[in-house]
Design brief:
Blueprint lengths: L1 H29 L9 E5 L5 H10 L6 H10 L9 E5 L5 H9 L4 E5 L6 H11 L4 H14 L11 E5 L4 H17 L2 H5 L5 H14 L6 H13 L7 H12 L43 H8 L8 E4 L5 E4 L2 H12 L2
Antiparallel strand pairs: 1-2, 3-4, 5-6
Helix pairs in contact: 2-3, 5-6, 6-7, 9-10, 9-12, 10-12
Length: 336
């Protein structure tokens, strides 16, 4: 009985001491770091955890204690509510004020444009990422399409940090400038290439849509150039998909089109300079925005004896030197 009576007195004391300590820790670590009102650009990358954000804030001199920051987010139910992007903060704000700034949302947000999209898809993705709605969304997409009529293939796919209210024209300029920078990084390959920049970008766009891995791209680029040199039709499905989508754009809303549907026998008869089953030679312009590895492959293709290639259902590529070998691959890997 004495033992239980002793615990009866000890437990409340321990709880009080714990509460006092917690209050002390909170007051000591939630205060502003300094009196400076200088603005600090603080960028949160996609996928950052509360711990990572807290550590980065501590390193930047914006908060006093990363653990207290994490615990506060968890206790207030805000741990998963902080969006990636850029925030403008200052060290004269308390921890609670810093969290309130985060909950308002970033001043700039991350927008990821994957490789292999055509300009219409890029416009739609940007509009969605910027949370454009209704007429504002339509205006943004239409402006983007109008400004990129001759820019297919020259809008570099990347992850961009942009203001929420960025205009379509500034997005286009940003993507074009990034393309120029990326091309300059492979200028040595481009300078010794037997092909013009225009041809390289066109072939790179085909390679982007026709390949699955960076390892196979130089070989596929080599097959495309070999066919062009010998006057063979390219017979690239992606170009037919591009032609079919162009036809759909004449009668269907931009946002409702499936741009890369599987090619049918009827599609192969479409009358278009992009139909590489029907017409020989290089197509008039790129069909999508290629990434750096595809551009590099088109600038530095790998020579081989191959004329054909297919991908099996698992995504593995199979090359062939003759029509007979190619047909065997089709039967063996595609069951056709």
């Amino acid at each position: 009985m004495k033992k239980f009576r002793l615990l009866f007195y000890i437990v409340p004391v321990v709880l009080v001491i714990g509460a006092v300590f917690a209050i002390f820790m909170w007051r000591a670590n939630s205060r502003p770091v300094s009196n400076s009102s200088s603005k600090i650009s603080f960028v949160i990358t996609k996928g950052s955890s509360a711990s990572q954000i807290g550590n980065k804030l501590k390193t930047a001199g914006i908060i006093r204690n990363a653990l207290i920051f994490k615990v506060y987010l968890q206790l207030t139910g805000n741990s998963g509510r902080i969006q990636a992007g850029e925030y403008i903060l200052s060290a004269n704000k308390s921890l609670t004020q810093i969290v309130k700034e985060f909950l308002k949302g970033p001043s700039q947000i991350w927008v990821t444009i994957p490789e292999g999209l055509r300009k219409e898809e890029i416009a739609i993705r940007f509009a969605a990422s910027l949370d454009k709605q209704g007429e504002e969304k339509n205006i943004f997409i239409n402006d983007f399409i109008s400004l990129t009529k001759a820019s297919e293939g020259y809008l570099f796919p990347d992850t961009y940090l942009v203001p929420k209210d960025i205009s379509a024209s500034k997005v286009v300029d940003l993507m074009k400038n990034t393309f120029e920078k990326k091309m300059s990084s492979i200028s040595a390959d481009v300078s010794i290439s037997a092909h013009s920049v225009s041809e390289i970008v066109i072939v790179a766009s085909l390679v982007e849509r026709e390949t699955r891995t960076s390892e196979e791209r130089p070989l596929v680029a080599g097959v495309i150039y070999r066919r062009l040199a010998e006057g063979w039709p390219l017979q690239v499905d992606a170009t037919v998909q591009y032609a079919v989508a162009n036809t759909k754009l004449k009668s269907q809303p931009i946002t409702q089109i499936k741009y890369w549907e599987e090619v049918s026998k009827q599609d192969i008869d479409i009358s278009s300079p992009y139909n590489t089953y029907k017409y020989q030679g290089i197509i008039p312009s790129p069909i999508c925005s290629p990434g750096l590895t595809s551009l590099k492959a088109a600038a530095s293709p790998q020579d081989s004896e191959y004329w054909f290639y297919i991908h099996d259902e698992s995504g593995q590529i199979h090359f062939a030197k003759t029509t007979e070998e190619h047909n065997q691959n089709i039967r063996k890997y595609l069951g056709k």
